[in-house]
Amino acid sequence: MKKSYYLFNPVRLSRKDNTLQFTPFDEQGNEAGPCRYIPVETVSDLYVFGSLDANSALYNFLGKHGISAHFFDYYEHYTGSFFAKEYLLAGKMQVAQTRHYTLRNKRVALAQKFIEGAAFNILKNLRYYHNREKDLAASISQIEKYATQISATTEVPELMGLEGNIRQTYYAAFDTIVAGFTMENRSKRPPKNELNVLISFGNMMCYAACLDMIYHTQLNPTISFLHEPGTRRFSLALDLAEIFKPILVDRTIFRVLNKREVQPSDFATDLNGCVLKESGKKTFVKAFEERLKETVKHRTLNKSVSYKHLIKLECYKLSKHVMGIEEYKPFKIWW
Amino acid sequence: MPITATHVNLYHVCHRELWLHANEVRMEHTSDTVSEGKLIHETAYPQRAERYREIVLDGVKIDFYDPKAKVVHEIKKSNKAEAAHLAQIKYYLYILEQNGIEGATGILEYPTLRITETVTLTPTDRSEMVKWLTNITVILNSLTCPPLLHAPICKRCSYYDFCYVGE
Ligand code: SF4
Fold first, then answer.
1. Alpha-carbon torsion A20, A23, A29, A31, what sign?
2. Is A252 found in the same domain as A182?
3. What's the pLDDT score for residue A314?
4. What domain range is B35 assigned to?
5. Alpha carbon distance A297, A311 (integer Å)
6. Count: domains in chain A
7. Binding positions for Mn(2+) (chain A) (predicted)?
8. Which of the four pLDDT bands, split at 50, 70 and 90, describes residue B31?
């Protein structure tokens, strides 16, 4: 099984025969600790949060093995990617995908599906905690009301507004779900408090995971339906992430906070806002990775699949939809 | 679109797979079966390279052709899709014939199963071939994807998840 690697500390990356050599270094550029060697065929992609020192020979080597590297800034905002040659892009799929973007009713229909899936999975989370003695009845009925309006929308901005309302109601319920942390308002750039930091960090991880899966299919990651293409370079990953955030990110947040795996001491506050310290990032990434690897029995495939694979299956369904093979039905958590 | 040997092979496996392949919906080529197949080619007959040449006729590439003995060689891993393998070789023989090379024969080998089969092109094959090629053209030009096969081979097909994922 190939694995994603997350690099938080400054590291020099080089090729050593058929392995990748990771050499940590300090601020002065001196070696700071033992090297690690990782066989190249076990690496699926790299997520770079700290500084990465590498030369073009290394990137050629990564490219040859289909390994992409994604880069993030200090606040974990995605800044760009090195993409291995886009070996799976297909002309016909791109044309079909573009047509679903340019024809308004086709685009709205798909965008609605993403919100529909997101709302369903959000409600699933709320009901789960509602059944565990947290009173979330008001939020649930409010979101249910919003959800009934999805199919009546005719424009994407209208749909985005609805989505905003759903999220706002949902995030407000986080205070009830996780004791000891408050949400106040959703703040992004930069996040103002611990919960907001975790949401931003988690959403970014989810975006990266979706991007990774899209990349392994023939879909073009820059052509999206709900989000305006160009919102971010790979806006299709934002579309897909809507569906998976409640299941992958929010559940992970509830877990690490309620089990006290991430503590207030894992955060630091500076002038600009709140940041997650390295200890906190590591804990969260580990929990998130575990979540991606967790498996469920798939209803129609008749076998167990990981959460990560569920994202890829979503890409398949989307491909089938744009190719006119089968209408897309968003993933709705069924257990 | 020129018809390739892969098209003829897939036509005998699954029309939907043929359509998906032709419409560039491909699965990742990280599959173990693919690399295993390559390895068999590379390791099974090291001396073969001397006799066999790669030739291209009408856009159809024959990997192993012995021009002296007029023999087409094809190596496969498992004989589960034997009809498709035979069809593929017959297509090679047909293309050779169309290009004025008469009386060529084929050898189909499954080294891991120690099975070797000789293949020739019969008059029945020739008329069948015309039918296959017409049907393949229809499928390749179709705007709609052929239905699911619902056959046991689906389980082993690289498109299985793609085809059968519902919700
Ligand atoms: S899974 Fe079955 S229906 Fe789909 S392409 Fe493969 S053989 Fe054909």
1. negative
2. yes
3. 97
4. 5-163
5. 15
6. 2
7. 163, 227, 242
8. very low
What ligand 1 atom has the least distance to the C-alpha of B147? Answer: 3
CATH number at residue B23: 3.90.320.10
- B11-25 pLDDT, tens digit per residue, is 999 999 999 999 989
| Mean per-residue pLDDT, B55-64 | 89
Mutate-to-test residue for ligand 1 from B6, B163, B164, B165, highest number of ligand atoms within 8 A of CB:
B163
pLDDT value of position A90? 72
Nearest to A66 by CA among A39, A94, A44, A96: A44
Residue A242, marked binder:
yes
Q: Is position A64 within any domain? A: yes
Distance CA B165, CA B167 (A): 6
Q: Is A332 domain-assigned?
A: no
Same domain, A10 and A53: yes
User: Both A52 and A136 in a single domain?
Assistant: no
Burial of A104 (0-12, 13-18, 19+ CB in 10 A): exposed
d(CA A46, CA B1): 39
The pLDDT averaged over each successive group of 10 residues in chain A (335 residues) is 82 90 85 87 87 91 88 75 72 91 94 97 94 88 95 93 94 87 71 85 91 87 88 85 97 92 86 83 92 93 94 96 95 86
Are A308 and A232 within one domain? Answer: yes
Least Cα distance to A280 among A198, A159, A178 occurs for A198
Q: Which domain holds residue A139?
A: 91-322
Q: So what's the pLDDT on residue B32? A: 46
ipTM > 0.95? no
What is the percentage of chain B residues whose pLDDT exceeds 90? 62
Please, what sign has the CA dihedral across residues A105, A110, A112, A113? Answer: positive
Interchain contact, B166 vs A329, CB within 8 Å: yes
**Structural domain count of chain B:** 1
Residues of chain A with C-beta less than 8 angstroms from the C-beta of B167: 299-300, 329, 331-332, 334
DSSP state of A155: S
Three-state secondary-structure class, residue B40: helix
Q: Give yes or no for B165 touching A (CB within 8 A).
A: yes
Mutate to test the pocket of ligand 1, among B6, B12, B14, B26 (most ligand atoms within 8 A of CB): B14
d(CA A195, CA A201): 10
Answer with the one of A40, A72, A104 that is the final residue of a domain.
Answer: A72
A323 interfaces chain B, CB cutoff of 8 Å: yes
A163 is in an annotated binding site: yes
Q: What is the CATH number of the domain that holds A28?
A: 3.100.10.20
Which of B143, B160, B167 is closest, CB to CB, to A299?
Answer: B167
If asked whether residues A273 and A181 sit together in one domain, one would say yes
